Amino acid sequence: MTMRKNNLLRVASAVFKICNFVLLFAAVALTIIFIHLQIDREFYADWYINKPVANETITLKKAYGEVEDDPAKLYVKNWNKASLYFTYFKFMGVIGITFFAVSEFLKVIHSVRVRKTFGRQNVVSFRRIGIYSIVLSFLSGVSDWDFGNHHVSSVHLDFTYLIIALLAFIFAEIFKEGNQLMEENKLTV
Predict the structure, then answer these.
(1) Does any domain span residue 67?
(2) Is residue 90 one of the residues assigned to a domain?
(3) How far is CA 73 from each of CA 2, 17, 32, 61, 170, rounded to the nearest angstrom?
(4) What is the domain range of residue 113?
(5) Residue 2: helix, strand or coil by DSSP?
(6) Who's near 94: CB < 8 A, 6+ residues apart?
């Protein structure tokens, strides 16, 4: 059975292509909402998030019925402009860097499928994935939520991305050694 017919690689490739499509869709949707929020803040008068604490995940919710000033809710229309811009560019950065990392991994999968497993491009791709992961660790660890009466800023390192970066750099070295052995083998034959 050749590598081209490997179902696992084909499924992985399809899943990562879908991930990249979802990332592109998310970037477009986020940009549309961001622009619309600049044009018509009152449209979002009944949209809110619960008070975020440091780097916890936030969920945008819509209040139905009569909207009261609940101190536990932070209304989107009150979002400080600088904080809004910071959050938008942070999320766009995370989406963009994740897109590039997934694209590099797709290159690795493709090279394995066409039997160029230890090609020089895989070494470069794994190094790029490592660099992207380090940037994601720093970028995802910074937050700034400012809604006038509530402000939370935090900085931390996301060790998950650092571990992925370490693994990517290790794979880059393994593939570099494999590439050198393959080149030496070509010369001896």
Answers:
(1) no
(2) yes
(3) 57, 37, 24, 10, 45
(4) 3-43+80-188
(5) coil
(6) 136, 139, 140
State the residue for tokens 């819509």.
Answer: 62
- Residues 3, 10: Cα–Cα separation, whole Å: 10
> What does the block give as tokens for 162?
């650092």
In a domain, 58, yes or no: no
pTM of the model: 0.85
Structurally, the chain folds into a number of domains equal to: 1
Per-residue exposure over 149-183, b if at least 16 CB sit within 10 Å of its own CB, e if not: eeebeeeeebeebbebbeebbebbeebbeebeeee
- The verdict on residue 24 lying in a domain is yes
Count helices and strands in the chain by DSSP H and E runs: 4, 5
Tens-digit pLDDT profile for residues 34-88: 999 999 988 888 888 877 665 566 777 887 766 566 677 888 888 899 999 999 9
